[in-house]
Amino acid sequence: MITVRVRGIYTTAVTQLLDENGFEIVQASDPIEERFTDSFATIPAAVSIETTRDRQGVAVSGDPDAVTAVVDELDSIAIDTFHWDAEVPRSAVFDGDVIEASGGGGAVVDLGDGRRGYLDYDDVDGYVDTGNRYRVQVHEPAPPWDDDRPRVVPSVAVAGGLCTLSRDRHGVSAALRGERADELVGMTDLLSTDVPEGWGLRWQPDAADADLEAMGTALDRAVDRVETLETALADAPDDPGEPGRLAAPERTAWLWFGRESRFALDDARRAVTATMAGHHRTKAADRAASAAVDFAEAVCGSAGSGNDDGDDGFPFEAVTYQFGPTTGDRIEIGHGKPDGRLVSLGRGEVTNWEADGSVTVERSMRGGGTYDALGVPKESGDVAVTKFREGRWWYPTTYRDAEGTAKGTYVNVCTPVELFPDCARYVDLYVDVIRKPDGTVAIVDEDELEAAVADGLVAEALAEKATSVATAVERALSK
What we know:
Layout: E1 3-7, H1 11-19, E2 24-25, H2 30-35, E3 47-51, E4 57-62, H3 64-74, E5 81-85, E6 93-100, E7 106-112, E8 115-120, E9 133-140, E10 151-153, E11 157-159, E12 163-166, E13 172-174, H4 179-187, E14 200-203, H5 212-234, E15 244-247, E16 251-257, H6 259-270, H7 279-285, H8 289-300, H9 316-323, E17 330-336, E18 342-354, E19 358-364, E20 383-389, E21 394-400, E22 406-414, E23 418-420, E24 423-435, E25 441-444, H10 446-454, H11 460-478
Parallel strand pairs: 1-2, 1-3, 8-10, 13-14, 17-24
Antiparallel strand pairs: 3-4, 4-16, 5-16, 6-7, 6-9, 6-15, 7-8, 9-10, 11-12, 12-14, 17-18, 18-19, 19-20, 20-21, 21-22, 22-24, 23-24, 24-25
Helix pairs in contact: 1-6
């Protein structure tokens, strides 16, 4: 049975989904212990799942085969769940060259093959300069839709949830205070496995709830991973000509959750505890919203869980009134791609807001080139008027010149739109619908969608949905 440790805003739902499908949840947090009738062991985890900092999805890291099994299970949450492998996975070791070390709090490191990392100056002894070479390990990977680079550190460690072995430490310590810390350090002498020479052992907070057998298992596994890592590093050339990866003991995969995925996660969570409609959608919108959601659920139970007439029950008016976006706000159009990248289509002002989930965003356009597929020149003074509606599988943008004359309409077909406080977010599904100034309506870029399906970027079911939406929009525009 694959052991999994889960943390973050999706924890209850993910725990429910994995637990009922044969995975063993370990090192459970206190709220999870309270919500589930199961008893969760404090033993090493083969996989860890953590919510991304922007709350858009999760990182799944650990034993490569175990990560594959977890991703295969969670990838089926809903039609707009996407996953990608990280090119720079957690705990991977690279020989990297500093290529930018001017200003800021850290340097950009070339990891080879077009990969980049971020090295914090505080993690380095001495002055960091362009051209310096460091042997670094990935401490915090970065999702493909994020502008941040993976954080790397100039040291090597093996972490496993209960304990960490590190070359930067000496002896045995615990990330705790008081008597329990002293107990963990003292109990280490009772274990049959020795700490490898040149490595320091640090027990993590979760170890406080572990018994002697679990501690021994955790240390055994950590030592095995140290031996594997040392073998890989011993085989690396002493002076490689180019930066590159030396070892990748873990696999990291990213799961991005679209709007339908978040509501499916609500359903999973609702099977365990009171869950308001749009629980995960609201928490993903703003970090401050988490406390508000928790309070509402504690007071009102599962009120507002949606109904059977197609209304998902998401309290758009209340959420956007409290956290945005509303009239006068400026938001970015976050154009996600099925390969994981996030492309900004610019920022605009919300000129209209409706309680039904609709907002209108206006952007001033720069001159030069033409508008995609419309074949109409971009001119200074043009205005793009985009109308979003929460949960809709498409949105239209009408381009107007300085006098207000329409230059054409471009309808983007995408996964259901989510209107976060500072960003309209979705994943583009390639196929689009246009209406030219002369009234001609056409579906475009169908070949790009077919290519994406062939490349495995878009699932067949999702492609069929996109085509169906495009056909319906074309029919509506042609009337």
